[in-house]
Amino acid sequence: MIPSILPTYSRAPLKFVKGEGSWLIEEDGRRFLDMGSGIAVTLLGHANPILVDALTSQANSLWHVSNLYEIPGQVELADRLVEATFADTVFFTNSGTEACELAVKMARKYHYEKGQPERLEIIAFEGCFHGRSSAAIAASGAEKMVKGFGPLLPGFLQVPFGDIDAVRAGMTEASAAVIVEPLQGEGGIVPLPDASLKALRQLCDDAGVLLILDEVQCGMGRTGTLFAHERAGIAPDIMMVAKGIGGGFPLGAVLATEDAASGMTVGTHGSTYGGSPLAMAIGNAVMKTVADKTFLEDVNRKAGMLRQKLEGLVAEHPDVFEGVRGEGLMLGIKCKMPNADVVNAGFDAGVITVPAGDNVVRLLPALTISDEEIAEAMARLDKAATAAKAA
Questions:
Q1: Which of 74, 253, 272, 338 ranks highest by number of CB atoms within 10 Å?
Q2: What is the DSSP track for 40-103?
Q3: Which are the contacts of 355, defined by CB distance < 8 A and separation ≥ 6?
Q4: What spatial distance separates the first Cα and last Cα of the chain, rounded to whole Å?
Q5: Where in the chain is the domain with CATH 3.90.1150.10?
Q6: Domain with CATH 3.40.640.10 in the chain
């Protein structure tokens, strides 16, 4: 008999009932150090007082009115994002998947309005993850994402990740945009080198193709800058944001230049819940904190500490781990044994990590994690590695 919850997840046998900063508490009272943050979502930790206050205050005032009316919090958050980034305009969604849908629509509408309706194709990269909607799985093209869900939405081409020559070879008069994660998350914490991102930007400029960056997982301070692409000194035409921007509350956004968004006029897109007063209260509180220069400097300091300790952990367990990769507080440990074994051993050791592609274990702690908690996480991961090897 099918359960009341559609069985599309393989869930760990854990039932968390409370969160405190970087800690999760199971219903039996056990405390787990959370190095996954709900897959890079609880950016400022669990039950952060700043976010609790923002949500409570708004909840006591107004929850929802729809986008038929002005929502002051949207203007405030959009202004913050425009001031801090390349963007001229913002559309608020509830998730990264919804952001992907709009990014694809925006790119195609841009060329249609320019008198080039044949420019429909989006070039994506192998190993990518942009969500699980029809457009997002078509962008991925991976068998595990698309099997059984045909016919696939047409107009997507996949090339090897970071292969600029393959992008160049794949560009035709039908190309509309290139979509890429500056640092792949689900794919296994695989960074796109700065030089490749710069070359991609130039290639798009030369071909009149839009560049869409997916910073759903790697954005909002996670790599040590507000957005990961800033390290390469380039800017996209369109950018997808979600996860951390809501600090645990469903929130996403599409940021765009005025030119890229020029085709999106009244009636071309919409959302019932996107940009609700509740979401905007949280998003503004998150942005106030994360966009602060001092806060980001501390993220970089802690990232250096975590990376150094992880390198030591790998050296201590050469039969379990191969190496460390990633940027900021978005790091991965490449495993020699099945990564699921390491993740499961972590449960017994009281530390939460997240599996990813290429046999990698992801570490995505809250940006507010303390030095002492980083040390404790390493002690627990050391215990997990020892147990995984012995199993």
A1: 253
A2: HT-TT-BT-HHHHHHHHHHHTT-----TTS--HHHHHHHHHHHHHSS-SEEEEESSHHHHHHHH
A3: 339, 340, 343, 361, 362
A4: 33
A5: 16-34+293-390
A6: 50-290
Say how far apart CA 189 and CA 40 lie, in whole Å. Answer: 12
Q: Which CATH fold topology does 50-290 show? A: Aspartate Aminotransferase; domain 2 (3.40.640)
* d(C-alpha 7, C-alpha 345), whole Å: 24
| H-helix or E-strand spanning residue 33 | strand 31-34
Nearby residues of 197 by Cβ (< 8 Å), 6 or more positions away: 180, 182, 229, 232, 234
CB atoms within 10 A of CB 48: 23
Place of tokens 């300790």: 309
Architecture of the domain made up of 16-34+293-390 = Alpha-Beta Complex (3.90)
Place of tokens 């970087």: 22
DSSP string, 241-279: E-GGGGBTB--EEEEE-TTTTTT--TTS---SSTT-HHH
Residues 6+ apart with CB under 8 A from 345: 384, 385, 387, 388, 391
Nearest CA among 333, 251, 277, 268 for reference residue 113: 268
pLDDT along the chain (391 residues), means of 10: 95 97 98 98 98 98 97 98 98 97 98 97 96 93 90 94 96 97 96 97 98 98 98 98 98 98 97 97 98 97 98 97 97 97 97 97 98 98 95 80
Q: Which residues, in sequence order, are bridge partners of residue 212?
A: 179, 238
This prediction's pTM: 0.96
